[in-house]
Amino acid sequence: MMTSANADLIRVIADPLRLQIVTLLAHETLCTSHLVEETGARQTNLSNHLRVLREAGVVETEPCGRFTYYKLKPEVIEALAESFGDLAVTARTTVETNRKRAC
């Protein structure tokens, strides 16, 4: 079921740079320097977006010496995907049964 928490998460991930970050982190754990190199974004801008993703629970940090690595939390993406899957099943049932409310 879609919830307001899902809506908040969708808004967080919908930003183009944050979506790019999430996509990159789906493939490997990266530090800020790597993300700056991959995205071309400025370090301060990137750090702000990483903070938003961290506060939303989408990514977590892993300190490694003087660097901080970021990794995606797949369970968050899976839960969102499951909500969309449930919504698609409901929509399919509605279409197949031609369910509509009378006016």
Structure, briefly:
Helices cover 66% and strands 14% of the residues.
Fraction of residues in helices?
55-70%
Number of strands: 3
Number of helices: 5
Mean pLDDT: 94
Q: How do the helices and strands follow one another from N- to C-terminus? A: HHEHHEEH
Strand order, sheet with most strands: 1-3-2
Radius of gyration: 18 Å
The geometry reads as elongated
What proportion strand? 5-15%
Biggest β-sheet description? 3 strands, antiparallel
Model regions low in confidence, pLDDT < 50 over at least 5 residues:
none
N-to-C terminal Cα separation, in Å? 26 Å
Structural class: alpha+beta
Give a description of the structure:
- With 103 residues, this protein is of the alpha+beta class.
- The protein contains five helices and three strands, in the order ααβααββα.
- A three-stranded antiparallel sheet has the order 1-3-2.
- β2 and β3 form a beta hairpin.
- The longest helix has 24 residues, at 74-97.
- It is elongated and about 60 Å long.
